[in-house]
Design goal:
five-stranded antiparallel beta sheet; 1 helix
Length: about 130
């Protein structure tokens, strides 16, 4: 009888070892991508670009929805001043549909640093994106 108890313990130990080995293989092969992707029910994709040529800044923002809905884009051209960014120009666009693209230009001081703050809204979803 004691040998049967030892045998059960050995089988249990082997099964536990195999289980432990496979679980560590799964963890070793897990995706180590640090970026977090967010699931959107309405926003399909969005894009922002800031192009500076000479003294002209061109700000472009595009929003694409999965289905027709109310779309809004707010573009803020921001200038770096004393380690902070302050808005120097704001543009708003809106329409119903599946896509909205805005392109705006403004003369700037080439010696300063600028970024775009774009706020995208599709239906009830909102996301803010910064582009340097």
């Amino acid at each position: 009888m004691p040998t049967q108890s030892v045998r059960v313990k050995q089988i249990f130990a082997i099964l536990f070892s195999v289980l432990l080995m496979f679980s560590s293989c799964i963890a070793a092969n897990a995706d180590t991508n640090d970026s977090i992707s967010t699931y959107y029910a309405e926003i399909n994709s969005k894009d922002v670009s800031l192009t500076i040529s000479g003294i002209k800044a061109t700000c472009k923002a595009s929003l694409f929805a999965k289905k027709p809905t109310a779309l809004k884009i707010k573009i803020e051209l921001q200038k770096k001043k004393s380690d902070k960014y302050e808005t120097v120009e704001t543009w708003n666009g809106s329409k119903n549909g599946t896509s909205l693209t805005m392109t705006k230009t403004r003369n700037i001081n080439r010696l300063c640093k600028y970024r775009i703050k774009a706020t995208f809204t599709a239906g009830s979803e909102k996301e803010v994106v910064y582009q340097y």
